[in-house]
Amino acid sequence: MNLVFPEIPDLRYKSPSQRIRVLSETWMKNEMYCPSYGCDYLSKLPNNSKLADFRCESCGEIYELKSKGSPIGRTLLDGAYYAAIERITSNSNPNLFVMRYQKNLFEALTVVPKYFFTPDVLMMRPPLAPTARRAGYIGS
Ligand SMILES: [Zn+2]
User: Fold this and answer.
1) What tens digit of pLDDT does each residue of 73-116 get?
2) pTM, 2 dp
3) The domain that contains 103 carries what CATH number?
4) How much is the average pLDDT of 15-20?
5) If you ran DSSP here, which 8-state letter would residue 34 be given?
6) Contacts of 124 (CB under 8 A, 6+ apart)
7) In a domain, 87, yes or no
8) 57 CA distance to ligand 1 middle (Å)
9) Cα of 55 to ligand 1 centre, how many Å?
10) 111 C-alpha vs ligand 1 centroid, how far in Å?
11) CA 127 to chain centre
12) Could you tell me the distance, in angstroms and rounded to a whole number, from the CA of residue 131 to the centre of ligand 1?
């Protein structure tokens, strides 16, 4: 297993978060297997897929990836609260990969099986202030 993120010479993203998303997703596609049934490969789903980030073509399991360059802590930020509730109570609830990295080096990966996600584990964030660009948005 190669622990260094891949070199992507023509990577056009300037934003550090977009760069790390591409590098970590490419690393996952190249190095990771499907932990549900030990299948050999994971396929990357299209960007902005509402379903998840990866799918195993052999068993059909889907996975979402969250990457952090700092200690993982007790909580993770997710998207819109009500959309997240709808997703985790649906039949298309993904398993979760939580990746920790430092600079361009993979450090650790935690897999959280989808059956651990229930509405009880989601925390509703306070709505954004009326002066915010996305006023009223409720994250999780
Ligand atoms: Zn599989």
Assistant:
1) 888 888 899 998 998 899 889 999 999 998 888 889 999 999 99
2) 0.85
3) 3.40.210.30
4) 85
5) B
6) 81, 138, 140
7) no
8) 7
9) 8
10) 14
11) 23
12) 45
